Structure of P2X purinoceptor:
Amino acid sequence: IIIMIKNRSIRFVNFELAKLPVVFLWSKKWVFLCEKAYQIIDTAIESSVMTKVKGFGVHNGQVMDVADYVTPTQGASVFCIITKTITTENQVQGLCPESEKRWICNNDSDCNPQRNKPGDYGILTGRCVSFNNTNNTCEIKGWCPAEIDTVKITPMMEVENFTIFIKNSIRFPKFNYTKGNFLPSINQTYIKKCNFDKVNNTYCPIFRVRDVVHYANQDFRKLGGVIGIKISWMCDLDKSDEHCKPSYSFNRLDTMSQKNEVSPGYNFRFAKYYKMENGTDYRTLIKAYAIRFDVIVNGNAGKFNMIPTLINMVAAFTSVGVGTVLCDIILLNFLKGAEQYKAKKFEEVKCQVSIKQEKNQQSQQLFLIHIQPSNPLKLCGFVSVITVFHLTNEMNQIHEE
Ligand SMILES: *[C@@H]1O[C@H](CO)[C@@H](O)[C@H](O)[C@H]1NC(C)=O
């Protein structure tokens, strides 16, 4: 049974207090289970990544090992596997013709306006010199001879069978919790022969390049770009330790250059330097086409804590309480059939109120108010007390007037 009190302010107080247990039960489930609002979350994951690539390939008739095709060599979280190189050997400092087509010239006056400006492979001298039997090009000062990078070279296809071994340790500083991607379930014999796949070997830390490229939805033969290997740690530390596991995902990071025809793929140049007997330097310039891998680690961990529990409980109380009050206001006042709803929800109880006026020892006015409902079972004590208090105030005002 619900008691309707005609005085609005009293009605409000009584109703909201009566609703609290219901609100509590409802919000408890939502807050605690679905939103994990009883936990504090640590998103500041600390991580270290070590990588190691294995495999042999053949390129330009030479067998390439890891020291030849992985750069930088430190085994960091970002590394490149070189799939193709164009080498220009025995470069020395000097003067020589440009190798790019756009520097073709007939005489010095074609090149002179560009004097001291950068060309493709050196600083232009302003002279037009013989490049080969048919063409002249502008002369440069720099490392000579200039690189010719239009030669066709087949990439090293064995790269697809190379493996990447990833060692990842993480720490959640708020809880001082550490873990690695070598789960306790992984033993020596398993790790010697396992390769990651998304069905049976979801925790094997050894990845075949072909699989990584495939999982990132890329075509290995066309590839030169940046592939992300993402390791996510979503840990509920209220559960046992074995539930905190990494999950791996793969995607292409340089989606810009994938769509862009102007600068497709990924390449860079580096050189190896030597000294001649007479002391002058010479070098081998290498233009490398590569697949770059970025190992990205993210994650968060949650653990039970009293403070968010309390804050979220209070928040739930408040929001739900306000919601029901609003619903009631609309239903009771503005909708069609509000009278019927009111009649269902509330039942009027008639009370007899008798007021006795007395004087106490300090000769102050005192009102004794007695409320007697026509059916006593229908009123709870709490309502009576508040009603009495309120009536007293009103009576005082009347008396003063
Ligand atoms: C990669 O390995 C498979 C067998 O494991 C082999 O059939 C394939 O030819 C290899 N790919 C290259 C490019 O060598």
Q: What stands out?
A: The chain has a mean pLDDT of 80. Residues 157-158, 160-161 surround 2-acetamido-2-deoxy-beta-D-glucopyranose (CB under 6 Å). DSSP finds nine helices and 17 strands in the chain. The longest helix spans residues 306-333.
